[in-house]
Amino acid sequence: MGTVYLAEHPVIGSRVAVKFLHESMASDPAIVSRFFDEARAVNLIGHENIVGIYDLSLLAPARYYFVMEYLEGETLQALLRDGRPLDPRVAIDVLVQVCEALQCAHEHGVVHRDLKPENVFLVRRRGKAHFVKLVDFGIAKLRGASVPGRTQAGFIVGTPEYMSPEQCDDGPIDARTDVYALGVIAFELATGRLPFRGATVAQLLLAHLRERPPRPSELAPVDPAFERAILRALEKDPAARFQDMEAFAGALRAVASPAKAAASAPAPTAAAATSTAASPPPLEGLAVEVALAGGAPARTPAVELTRGGLFLRADGALPPLRARLRLALAHPSLRSPLELEAEVVRHVSAAEAAAWRMTPGYAVQFVSPPPEARAAIGALADELRRETPAPAPPASPAEISDRLAALEARRESPYAFLALEPDAEFSDVRRSLRAIREELEAVRARPRAADHPARATALLARLEGAQDALGSPAARLLHDARAGNFAGVARCVAAGVPAALVEARRRELLAEFPARGDEARRQLARAEVARKLGNAGAARRAYEAALAADPLDLEAHAAFAAFSRPAAGR
What is the helix, strand, coil percentage profile of the chain, to 5? Predict the structure, then answer.
């Protein structure tokens, strides 16, 4: 379908991957349209475990392309080259991450349809050795839209070893198609071999349609719960499989429970989310001095170095996003310290770090390093790359009780329970949900006091409520509209909630609370008067009051956005 090239920005030096549609397909307007539509869909999903897409365009006369996140790592296929089963801890961790990414994609109406180990890329992220990035997302779907499984010429859509029975038989495609493909991958990770083999493509397709897969435990030592999850995902009838990726992920998490000692490592404790011991230590031997414009240099610990930038630990105030910094990097392997300019591109607050089990601080991207400095950074990054640090020591019963009490005290709203701001990104919501779920499941499975299981169970029920309220754009839209959270509504609209659904929910809301519509109209009139009089502060307050009363008014959102754009200069 396409060819991928490594590219580098000529000014700031950041690396990206550029994917070109094959010229042989560029003459078909339908394929070109679907190529771009799929790129937009992937970008709309915005999940941390799906490769990011930054831009799409045309290089005249007919070279269509899009620009993607550049990944340094290896594919899941690389871990399967020796034909041996993967460590169950690694396998389940990878599979759960894939489930979470695909669940988000399916909620946005995007089905991968070509899931295979080659499309599961593994990178290192802040001490995590196997952080998943799904690539080639939906590319198989682009090869013709006339029939579900194959093109008009009969070309197979998908990779035969991982195709579901409905794909093999030109049946209807939905999220359960991806469940089956991930079941094939899970079988392969657990046993070191595929569930079905054939000398020809036709034999493989018939095997998917007619043959029962062997039990994984007949081929390798496999946890019984893991085997049950794999075989359910591989059911021929889509109705008999897990109905969505969240259900598949739940079964996999149950396998990873610390109670199953033979198949898992010690689980994170309740204190791990807030303990600094859970964070990776500073990079050994690397000294970094950071100076803001006009400020004095300050020694700052670095916990990750890549060819493109640094992640720096900071427990206090963070420098502004897009701020330019001066860096000095020193290490015994360097001939002399490197003097570099960098830009702040990411914040991780203390609250986010606690929720996501990350290090608080900020990420910087190097700005136009000279070639010799770039080479030195690359060599140093390779040298400092290290394995995942060991888990933090178990927390004491008192520490776990304190952590449970802190969660129990978060009663204001689902956002407060997840330690998130009302305008949190969906990726942040998912991270917080996952981190708290893992924490509470660990407490329930390995309690340190008699009351811990019941308290953890009650908190998990509240977590389910928070997920129901905020986990999908459509559900969050309704929750935030009722709460008057117009910033959250804006996130839902940006995530792709159709305008027709927004209008339908607005009619329902105003029919139930007609006074809110009246209040919104009054405040919008005040905002217009204040704007004409040049009173920006009063206009902003009135716009915000109007949107709090009627947060589903898309025209008011647009007016407020237009008003706010020049606000930086006020």
Answer: 50, 15, 35
Question: Which alpha helices (DSSP H) does 12-148 contain, by range?
Answer: 29-45, 88-107
112 near 134, Cβ under 8 Å? Answer: yes
For 116-135, what is each residue's pLDDT tens digit? Answer: 999 999 998 866 789 999 98
CA–CA separation, 40 and 48 (whole Å): 16
The pair of three-digit structure tokens given for residue 126, joined into one six-digit string: 């802040």
How many DSSP H helices and E strands does the chain contain? 19, 14
- Residue 408's DSSP bridge partners are none
What are the backbone angles phi and psi of residue 8, rounded to the nearest 5°? -135, 135
Cβ distance 64 to 19 under 8 Å? Answer: no
- Only one residue has tokens 């495609």, namely 173
Which residue, among 280, 299, 290, 340, has the nearest Cα to 319 in the 3D structure?
290
- Residue bearing tokens 């950041």: 14
pLDDT of residue 31: 76
State how far the Cα of 539 lies from the Cα of 525, in Å rounded to an integer: 10
Phi, psi of 27 (to 5 degrees): -85, -10
Is residue 550 within 8 A of residue 520, CB to CB? The reply is yes
Q: Phi then psi for 309, rounded to 5 degrees?
A: 180, -165
> At a CB cut-off of 8 Å and minimum separation 6, what does 107 contact?
472, 473
pLDDT tens, residue by residue, 522-551:
999 999 999 999 899 999 999 999 999 999
Q: Could you give the residue numbers annotated as active site?
A: 114
Phi/psi of residue 491, nearest 5 degrees: -60, -40
**Three-class SS state of 108:** coil
Closest among 104, 147, 101 to 120, alpha carbons compared: 101
